[in-house]
Amino acid sequence: MPSSQEELLQDLEKKARVIRSDIIRMVAEAGSGHPGGSLSAAEIVTVLYFHVMRIRPDEPDWPDRDRFVLSKGHAAPLLYAVLAERGYFPAEELITLRKLGSRLQGHPAFGKLPGIEASTGSLGQGLSISLGIALAGKIDHRDYRVYALLGDGENEEGQVWEAAMAAAHYRVDNLTAILDYNGLQIDGPVADVLSPLPLPEKWRSFGWEVREVDGHSFEELLAAFEWAKGVHDRPSMIIAKTVKGKGVSFMENAVDWHGKAPDREQAEKALAELLAVPS
Amino acid sequence: MNVATRDAYGRALVELGKKYPDLVVLDADLAKSTKTADFAKVFPERFFDMGIAEQNMMGTAAGLALAGKIPCASTFAVFATGRAFDQIRNSIAYPGLNVKIIATHAGITVGEDGASHQSVEDIALMRALPNMTVIVPADATETGKAVAAAVVHEGPVYIRLGRPAVPVLFDENYRFRLGRAEILRRGPDAAIFATGIMVYEALKAAETLAGRGVDVTVVNIHTIKPLDVETISSLAMKTGAVVTAEEHSIIGGLGSAVAEALAERCPVPLVRVGIRDRFGESGKPGELLEAFGLTASHIVEAVDLVLQRRVCGK
Ligand SMILES: Cc1ncc(C[n+]2csc(CCOP(=O)(O)OP(=O)(O)O)c2C)c(N)n1
Ligand SMILES: [Mg+2]
Questions:
Q1: Which of B86, B109, B88 is nearest to B99 (CA)?
Q2: What is the pLDDT averaged over residues A127-156?
Q3: Between 20 and 30 A from B171 (CA), which of A12, A28, B182, B226?
Q4: Which structural domain, as residue segments, surrounds residue B271?
Q5: A125 CA → ligand 2 middle, Å
Q6: Given CB atoms, is B259 within the 8 Å cutoff of chain A?
């Protein structure tokens, strides 16, 4: 492996740790929020903003920018942390999450904060929005790409499949969806609550090119996004196998940490674990 | 003592489940939050978690009702009434099916989740549907009784519940009468028609006003549809000044319903306390109620204002 790739991976690992720590601090300070699904997608969103996407954080409305839509809007702490670390707004503002008057609403609110491309939070709507942005890119002959992050529980929404069908029909190859396949939703494992499985077969049969990756491996994610750029005539789906709550031992794979804030002691324990990892 | 109306709902479901073998419950991946999980524990064979798919949940509830079941379908109010509106309209309300839509986390007291999760228009949506009964309980006691009444009532019902624990106003002797406005306090100077958590605020406001020699009537409008137009217009006539109070948009909610009724029957000065044509936002429930003008002191101001208007009108 070339050393530049090695350095890139190390750099991304470091960024992801900072972002995970931000998430814990923000949610702890807010006293509510969704750590589990924010932590599971940390690598995915980090790699997009720090390597994959063509963006200008100092010019968030640049018309040719790549777009990211957080369809699973409850992972707002993750998106806010990444945007702040990428320079869209001051990182000091992160601790205002969920407070009255803050630009950091409980779920992403379009127009309030630079870098937020869509209002999400009501699950199942982000892929349709992304499709609209992708279609506009096509008719405007702009070469930007659109990335949408979905939850596996979110896949149960009918609208997701309406969007899936439409995206394949209109052959939007500038659209890439990423599925945070952490196996859990609120009432339990997705397989027990209302199984959306098997996912790859479903998405393929809807006309998408599908690739499965380890959602915590930067190497695999980098390769998958490179692959997606090369897919023609079809939308692409990256199914990223992840661990909900990844990086904090007591949050990993625990349904209860979907939408609960750590108390002070738990937050300190979580931060100690995240910072203990050798860099 | 404070109890969340959704907690009362969970308990009521378990009791009703024992009494009515045809009662079935559906949820959309929020069973722990809506408290239908209480029912699921006791009657697992009559509980269906439909996943994050509210439209399908409502359609399935319609089918269960067609086959003689009494389905209670629950999720957050925003998703129940907004996401699945057309399914409620065409599959449930139009055929008048016996589905109970019991939604929790209504209004801005959802708190930190913010606007995407705060329904400020669900009463308006449900009220506009023919055949639909709309109930907004004021406390935990009333919730239990309202849910029981809804299960017995033949036809579609929407019940609006909240997230936070709220004061208990009524004891077990309280009689819930569907479609009847409950007069909680009588006074000649003005009438406050309140619903949901604003009933408590209205009672507090009445205390404050009484201290200043202003004696108002306070009425609990738990049933927004069918509206008790008789009681409302007769009290409007007697007092000549009306204030409405709701944790909902003033467009299409209780304030609208009362304004519509009084405009036709007995127009008197009216001031509506409610959310003034805006979306919610993140914050603590108490902070939001203050910021959105939904407290006892805002009701007091509204009464002062309506009394000035009554003087002008004379
Ligand atoms: C339409 C809609 N229904 C219900 C909810 C409540 N809700 C928030 S998160 C969630 C579970 C999401 O599970 P998943 O998509 O797997 O997310 P993740 O595991 O990545 O956090 C639910 C049901 C919502 N936000 N939107
Ligand atoms: Mg999940």
A1: B88
A2: 98
A3: B226
A4: 182-313
A5: 16
A6: no
pLDDT digits (tens, 9 = 90+) for B55-97: 999 999 999 999 999 999 999 999 999 999 999 999 999 999 9
Measured in degrees and rounded to the nearest 5, phi and psi for residue B145 equal -70, -35
Final residue of a domain: which of B103, B133, B167? B167
Structural domain total, chain B: 2
Instruction: Report the chain A residue with the minimal C-alpha distance to residue B291.
Output: A100
B287 — contact with chain A (CB < 8 Å)? yes
What lies within 8 Å, CB to CB, of B1 at 6+ separation is B167, B168
Last residue of a domain, one of B167, B202, B232: B167
Which CATH number do you get for residue B187? 3.40.50.920
Whether residue B151 sits in one domain with residue B18: yes
The pTM for the full model equals: 0.96
What is the distance between the alpha carbons of residues A238 and A251, in angstroms, rounded to a whole number?
Answer: 24
pLDDT at A10: 97
Using the predicted structure, report yes or no on whether residue B314 has a pLDDT greater than 50: no
Identify the bridge partners of residue B134 per DSSP, sorted by sequence position. Answer: B158, B225
How far apart, in whole angstroms, are the C-alpha atoms of residue B39 and residue B20? Answer: 13
Query: Domain of A190: which CATH number?
Result: 3.40.50.970
- Are B250 and B152 in the same domain? no
Encoding tokens for residue B175?
A: 């009689």
What are B13's two structure tokens?
């479901």
* 8-state DSSP, B97: -
Residue B212: pLDDT over 60: yes
Domain count, chain A: 1
Q: What would the mean pLDDT of A120-143 be, rounded to a whole number?
A: 98
Check if B6 has its Cβ closer than 6 Å to any atom of ligand 1: no
Lookup: tokens for A278:
């050798």
